[in-house]
Fold this sequence. Notes:
Blueprint: E1 2-4, H1 22-44, H2 54-93, E2 98-102, E3 106-108, E4 113-116, E5 125-131, E6 137-143, E7 149-152, E8 165-175, E9 178-184, E10 186-197, E11 200-205, E12 210-212, E13 218-221
Amino acid sequence: MTEISQTTAATTTSAAKTTTSPTTASALSSDFETFLKMLTAQMKNQDPLNPIESTDYAVQLATFSSVEQQVQTNTLISALSEQLGVIGMSQTASWVGKEVKSEAPAYFDGNPVSLSVTPDSSADASYLLVRNSEGTEVQRVEIDPKETDITWSGMDKDGYPFSNGRYSFAIESHSNGSFLSSSAALTYSEVTEARRDGGDITLILNGGGEISADDVLSLREAR
């Protein structure tokens, strides 16, 4: 792993049950009893000269049965979704204290920042661009275009550390003096908290940054 500093710069919950809930079962039972009462009343008050066909009763029963099954299915799906959410939260909680790799800005507290970079394969020169929390470029450092893992020391050209705060990083690739491409440098940040926001899981990073668990590209032990 190469350490980068300005001296090398070219320029400056419990699981949900999967059975139908008592409330839902009671509601279905009540609805079915009401349906039977209505069906009985319909039979008693039908026109004897024009009685309802038995097939019509069968259709009504089949329709009610279909609706009943659909309600039960929806309840089971909802319960399963909640259970999977609890399982996901339980697993993600184990990430606390570990480092995750993502495109999120990293918090600099005086310690070097680990980065994962992918310069253009045809580049003969690459530069690490460092921006502060306001998006202002504060440093541009030349790196080996063949490197994939580097460390930003957080030092300026005079050897003094930058202020504590969140910094984002990008890689510029050049060939024969011409610009090729720019890509985000991935950062490693320690997870301090895992929080569930509705159906999503949010990770709180060292320094207060937040990312979705879906944005995590890899996980490793804190260094």
